[in-house]
Write a structure and sequence with these properties.
mainly alpha, about 0% strand
């Protein structure tokens, strides 16, 4: 799919500097190569907060989210926390995209990875408050509740 996108849209900035680096990075994470994922996402950095006059780029912060995931996979909690916080600091860019909510969980996990239980608890509480009316059997919610319980 990525190769097809690259061939069909060689001059499309969003494809070349957002979608493709994010796809390649996600694949690298799946292959347990977070350092490659971080390198792949360097191309997206200058464009992450950008939008176009034609349409709003809701996917602008997906590279940031995947970079945060890569840092978590690389056990670099401080760097992961910074990426997830960038998303939380720019909620308007992500609008109602799932990463807007999931960044809070990523931040909680990054703080827990750093051993900062107080910040991790606060971030988990923020995430769980946001999801307070969600269906209780959603896997990510169940997982977040279990992780939060371990911090108590």
């Amino acid at each position: 799919m990525a190769n097809d996108l690259a061939k069909r849209f060689p001059a499309d900035t969003l494809v070349q500097f957002n979608y493709l680096p994010t796809i390649h990075a996600r694949l690298a994470i799946n292959r347990t190569d977070p350092s490659k994922a971080i390198r792949d996402l360097q191309a997206a950095s200058p464009y992450e907060l950008g939008t176009t006059a034609v349409h709003f780029n809701f996917l602008g912060l997906y590279p940031v989210y995947v970079r945060g995931e890569a840092y978590v996979a690389a056990h670099q909690g401080k760097e992961a926390a910074a990426e997830f916080q960038r998303i939380l600091d720019h909620r308007g860019v992500v609008a109602n995209e799932p990463i807007g909510a999931l960044a809070g969980l990523g931040l909680a996990r990054a703080y827990a990875m750093q051993g900062d239980a107080a910040k991790a608890r606060a971030a988990y509480q923020d995430f769980l408050t946001l999801w307070k009316d969600a269906d209780l059997d959603i896997p990510i919610l169940k997982q977040a509740k279990a992780e939060y319980a371990k911090l108590q």
